[in-house]
UniProtKB/TrEMBL annotation, chains A, B, C, D:
Residues 8-302 form the Hcy-binding domain. This is Betaine--homocysteine S-methyltransferase 2. One of its GO terms (cellular component) is cytosol. Keywords: Metal-binding, Methyltransferase, Transferase, Zinc. Involved in the regulation of homocysteine metabolism. One of its GO terms (biological process) is L-methionine salvage. Binds 1 zinc ion per subunit. Pathway: Amino-acid biosynthesis; L-methionine biosynthesis via de novo pathway; L-methionine from L-homocysteine (BhmT route): step 1/1. SUPFAM superfamilies: Homocysteine S-methyltransferase. It catalyses: L-homocysteine + glycine betaine = N,N-dimethylglycine + L-methionine. Homotetramer.
Length: 360, 360, 360, 360
């Protein structure tokens, strides 16, 4: 594989029209593997069980991801106290180690703060961000992501701090089509982020594939209306949430321990990847609920455009073709695209509804 | 931790009334991680990516499993040709390495053959089994499991071969309440297996938690009626299959790439563990679809009986208690047992049915 | 139309191989029209609003029914006190008046008593039946039906009393495949009823089309095993109840004011009619939930066998053919059998489950 | 009862703040009774089987309706040719005969034409309307309704013609929140209708209770914004249609022969009546799918406001109270408001989805 130094940067890739495949969700995936605790959702596993984190990075790399995002979600003074700096440094090393085994970049990520909700003190919030960025700078990550922001204002502050590093900045908000907490529309959010300096904008988390793409469409239209240009990025949930309200999946009664029936199939994700591509989004990944095979589904759907298959496709027959040698003819009959594209999968739960009402 | 030599054997544990927690499914879990190919479902990952297999063993151990089953499913001359012996040996080493990090035993497993279906030639089938057992004997596994048999006759042959090793033998069939392919009832199957020398009998795979326990009840009744004694073992799917027919989940239209909406929650598995325990089953684990957190759910539900919590419970608040500090009061309100026990999780798929008709 | 005197009797029809189409449900249909009170379910409307009852008879006649059952359900001393005799006499007159407008017979019906449940005193129960039969004899109904019995013993008493009249006797129980309240199997029930003198046996009410036919199959097998012959009759609910327990639909949480989503379509009923016919049932009608168009569906499905269409088919295009002139092409496309046979109709209720757990 | 002459007119009632309860659907109800043919949906039953129509009027009157709408839907030269005049005259007589038995008014109704869709020739369309109004004038109906219009323009023409009669005019369109076929919003439609002379405006048919009320809210807001005043009227479907598109229920795959699972319960309609009332709507009735017991549900829900119960409530225990003497305690437990208000009724159809995709 090519030496890290030889890799094209994130903007180079996007500007040349390449599709960048993001990685998937660490928190919920590692919670199910027994390493992250639901509730606080902090990434201390990075120092406690680095192998488990490295293994997941490796799986996303094999699945075709071009980005290894440092597992530093909520890893700040605020939540991890004195531990935070070691966690962040270790997360950078883990991401880099795996990224160097393939064609992937390392992205350092910061997210919204509790301070902001308390008093929205710009100086204090930015100080918290700056401390985190220092580690990323020292570890020389390839670019930076401000993600999971419910307020455009705080996301703008984050972008401003990240820009100070001189590295490319992506910014994604965890909002739906109704906009941010202060009713700033997706289009307006996108405009603010680009004006603040983000080269890549979009959404991550909180909403499933269908709704996330609706929000992306609004962001795109907002940018066009304002005459601005930016690369588009989407990292949706791996769960279907047609019934969620403005707050997204956390308000659904199934969050976070009963979401299984909502899990997207690989075919749902191929559809999502295609629709995102058709919308003009070129940085396509996932967030909570996105397992490695979901990322592979993005890479497989867009293999014609990218010109290659991800390593993990060695263990995957396209559109179920691996079933074509099954002894039962009715299972062999499933080894084709039409079958899986049209399947309406049953829940096996006849006593359960198909939609829920969000709490609030 | 105690040295391996000091560990109690499988029969010692069961005879003293201990609950033995089995491990979960390797094939489907590693398929989703990008290492196993659906269709043939062979375990060559054991030599190709041993770290990925070791990591999964480790997760099951942390989740509370007392058994590390060698990942040797279908690993015979028949399917893997010359490679099979290396795969089996490596699988034994991987299982042992992790087992020695905790209180777990290593179990070598064999399963049904294609030869049997073709001509049911006892000598040929037994020869295939014997080759596999030689490796297990050389690697000194702690006990042996004959699993995933659709025909009682072939399962009996397997038990006969395994008994030759002098090690304790468990035998599980992948049948439902309607019995095996030749209409041998579950009760009759159990009787045959015990008479052939199995100390532990039960079911694995093909059927979800509810149906698997129905079959276990019939096995138990069959043994009682015959005046026989044996330890009971259940390793169900991690998918709900109330709608499957005699052939189990492979005949459902969702198999194997659209099963997501059927995935059991951790609460479903706690219920399964409790019901299995109440039925007198003391070896309780999982098969396809059982992820590490499902195994942890067994270990947590039966923690009062076992007297301890599994290591991975450090990252899990009991009955959702980790949510009790959430900023949203309606999410804090989910931090209690009644909430999760009574949740009827929505699929988020209003255009899909809740049950399917099996193909055949 | 032919004079009443010229009509073939019920046994003549069945013995010559004719299909007899029964009528539908009066209680629930007239409850929805505002004339019957749920709870006691008594037929005083017969004297209070005879036009409403006559109209419903007329609708069933037009739909193709060959039997006008007197609306005398629960019309005994027990429930209606002194009023009962007038109600019964009026019900006979109403049924006869409509029957004489077409090719229909009048059947007088009696059903299970509260006395039986209290102390099962044969003399008292039979006295109650005898009083009712006196009215039917005086009004010269064409045949008699003992229906809606949960206990074979009481049904046998009813048949014995009805036989005293010298008229043909049909007997239907409201049981499912699990048998009567004392665990008498459907096969045994059928045998007892035939031995007591019933010429026609079967089931009515409490269970939907699918389950009712399962019970009929068991009755048929019971009679065959006993070497007995009888005509078979089925009058199922017009509601789907795959989830009901031994007690039938009354135990479902939706009974009686939330059953709407379970209502059978006309196509469901055509399937039921065909399956009943194929099973050898020749008296095919409905009970609660069967509206006139459901009876028409029976008559239309079996029109080839009967050789004629019911009058109300003048207002019904076969298999939706009336849609073939619609201005919207996608609605015209529904004017064909395949469309309606394969439709999986949505409930429009995504927050509701598809099955319920029966209360008890 | 009071002589017809003494009855308060429709505007008098609404202006004094009274709730006016409309009647329900004739087409689908009489189709199920065997008198109307789906497809053309014409009302020739009025002359062919007047008793059947009179009976249905009577049921709506007993249920509490204050309006007997003449069953003249589509009864114009266009569809019924020479027959139309007799049908319309007979329909007026039938409605009057029943209206005079209670406190109900007679309303003559006209609806959209096929001519309009072909060439929107105002003169021809108005001529068709005028011919119909002549009959209504001769028969001296109490007021007139223009209903089931998809285009605001044609509805305005209808109102203009109806106004010529000097009688009060109501106008309802069969549109949803997205507006009419030319994208005229509900608010704009309402404004146009009022400006054309309608005293009462609203929606009827095509959409279920929930969506119809959303449209009403938009109409109300449109009128308020324009500083106009009018009485509001809603006559929704008796079917749930959350999944329909702009065309309403006719585009749903279940239309018209598989709508059963969507049928509203009486409790759904009580909720609808209360919400309509709270929104300020005072003329509340139903359209297709509204059976007499649905109208009774409106009258019962608003009995406190109206000060009396409808006659058919003699046969209805409020909130299921008629079940309080049932022998089974779990059925007695259903005799209360909380039970029925919170019931989530199952469809009994686990192989069906809960929502459909509209055709088009």
């Amino acid at each position: 594989m090519a030496p890290a130094g030889a890799k094209k940067g994130i903007l180079e890739r996007l500007e040349s029209g390449e599709v960048v495949v993001g990685d998937g969700g660490f928190l919920i995936t590692l919670e199910k593997r027994g390493y992250v605790k639901a509730g606080l959702w902090t990434p201390e596993v990075v120092v406690e069980h680095p192998d488990a984190v490295g293994q997941l990075h490796m799986e996303f790399l094999r699945a075709g991801a071009n980005v290894m995002q440092t597992f530093t979600f909520s890893a700040s003074e605020e939540k991890l106290e004195s531990k935070w700096k070691d966690v962040n440094a270790a997360a950078c090393d883990l991401a880099r180690e795996v990224a160097d085994k393939g064609d992937a970049l390392v992205a350092g990520g910061i997210c919204q703060t509790a301070i902001y909700k308390q008093d929205a003190d710009e100086a204090r919030v930015k100080r918290l961000f700056r401390l985190q960025v220092e580690v990323f700078a020292r570890k020389n990550v390839d670019f930076l992501i401000a993600e999971y922001f419910e307020h455009a204002e705080e996301a703008v502050w984050a972008v401003e701090v990240l820009k100070e590093s001189g590295k490319p900045v992506a910014a994604t908000m965890c909002i739906g089509p109704e906009g941010d907490k202060n009713d700033v529309t997706p289009g307006e959010c996108a405009v603010k982020l680009v004006k603040a300096g983000a080269s890549i904008v979009g959404v991550n988390c909180r909403f499933g594939p269908g709704i996330s793409l609706k929000t992306m469409k609004l962001m795109k239209e907002g940018l066009q209306a304002a005459g601005l240009k930016a690369h588009l990025m989407v990292q949706s949930l791996g769960f279907h949430t047609p019934d969620c309200g403005k707050g997204g999946f956390v308000d659904l009664p199934e969050y976070p321990f009963g979401l299984e029936p909502r899990t997207a199939t690989r075919w749902d994700i191929q559809k999502y990847a295609r629709e995102a591509y058709n919308l003009g989004v070129r940085y396509i990944g996932g967030c909570c609920g996105f397992e490695p095979y979901h990322i592979r589904a993005i890479a497989e759907e867009l293999a014609p455009e990218r010109g290659f298959w991800p390593p993990a496709s060695d263990k995957h027959g396209i559109w179920g073709s691996g079933l074509n040698m099954h002894t039962k003819p009715w299972i062999r009959a499933r080894a084709r695209r039409e079958y899986w594209e049209n399947l309406l999968p049953a829940s096996g739960r006849p006593f359960c509804p198909s939609l829920s009402k969000p709490d609030s």
